[in-house]
Automatic annotation (TrEMBL):
Bilayer topology term: Multi-pass membrane protein
One Gene Ontology term from the biological process aspect of the record: transmembrane transport
GO molecular function term, any single one: triose-phosphate transmembrane transporter activity
Bilayer-crossing regions: 20-37, 49-69, 136-155, 161-180, 192-214, 234-250, 290-307
Cellular component terms (Gene Ontology): chloroplast membrane; Golgi apparatus
Compartments it resides in: Plastid, Chloroplast membrane
Listed name of the protein: GPT2-a
Recorded name of the encoding gene: GPT2
Amino acid sequence: LNIELSDQEARSEAAQKLKIGIYFATWWALNVVFNIYNKKVLNAFPYPWLTSTLSLATGSLMMLISWAVRIAEPPKTDLDFWKTLFPVAVAHTIGHVAATVSMSKVAVSFTHIIKSGEPAFSVLVSRFLLGETFPVPVYFSLLPIIGGCALAAVTELNFNMTGFMGAMISNLAFVFRNIFSKRGMKGKSVGGMNYYACLSMLSLLILTPFAIAVEGPQMWAAGWQKAISQIGPNFIWWVAAQSVFYHLYNQVSYMSLDQISPLTFSIGNTMKRISVIVSSIIIFHTPVQPINALGAAIAILGTFLYSQAKQ
Ligand code: 3PG
């Protein structure tokens, strides 16, 4: 009986691993497509506050329709749920808009190199704000992460302060978002997909007034005319693609966050960045100097050392 049980356990463990593997591969592929279209849109239409709002609006609409036609079961939520979700949504909104502002100013690869430093932010926030302590090797692993990011930043050919700060702010905001959302999802009946849907909706409400204040309809209308005249009517499909893929990759990432530890999640996220960095450099012909690539490689190696040290 014992052998039978362990056989069954092994099989269900293998099935779980396969499921996570499929989630990860889908998450990365969707993310690469999002990043490519997002940058194509921002090159022609440099209004990151509007494009960020549109991605949240599209995701919210997709989920409302899915609930209405019962593709997905609507979640049962109470006021308490939305209250707990609020800080997550604030962090998600800041992290999203900051990353998009960053990508409107610098190469996609540069934003993601800086964003590969997220584990360092996670350790520093946990250490200094939450009083958590880590084994010494974890702190040492921060050296290549921070050093590699710094080397990549100072040797970046198209360095821009707003682009750099946007990615840094996004790192900080997403550390809080991940801490709060893992807590918020614990023991709740709302699964990853619906949790992210509610998060999109609340973030959309938070972001819309700021997007109008910072950019506003007048700028958008003029910019839109220009983009359409440059790219042609196809431009609208680029905007649709960046919005739909933004929602899909996040939905899948939340579905996996539901199943795995934040640590495994952050390793998956770093591997995702490698695929984004490499594919965007190829597609946008981003000029890279060897020393710049070395910085990126050291930073990414550092995140792997970090994950090993944390285990
Ligand atoms: C965004 O716009 O929210 C960022 O591109 C997302 O960054 P992520 O790769 O950390 O999800």
